[in-house]
Amino acid sequence: MWSHLKRSIGNLAVRGVDHLQAIIKNRLKRIQYRTDLLDSFLTHAGRDLDST
């Protein structure tokens, strides 16, 4: 997930730490609603939601 997030913010020019924090929160919120991405992150890590 971190790799995906880094790529989405790699070329941004931010005004400060607060601005960067707001952007990261926004990007994480977007990922939260992308179940396809979340599933692929888990699959890549060798996990799934059904495993115990």
Strand content: under 5%
Tally of individual domains: 1
Order of H and E elements: HHH
How would you classify the helix and strand content by structural class? mainly alpha
What are the low-pLDDT stretches, counting only 5+ consecutive residues below 50?
Answer: none
Give the oligomer, counting copies of the same chain as homo and different chains as hetero: single chain
As a whole number of angstroms, the C-alpha radius of gyration is 13 Å
Q: Could you give the count of β-strands? A: 0
Overall mean confidence score, pLDDT: 79
Biggest sheet: strands, sense, closure? none
Number of helices: 3
Q: Helical content, roughly?
A: 55-70%
Ends apart, CA distance between termini: 21 Å
Shape: elongated
What's the arrangement of secondary structure elements?
Blueprint: H1 2-9, H2 17-32, H3 35-44
What does this structure look like?
The protein is mostly helical and 52 residues long. The chain has one domain (2-44). Helices cover 65% and strands 0% of the residues. The longest helix has 16 residues, at 17-32. The two termini are 21 Å apart. It comes from Dactylosporangium matsuzakiense.
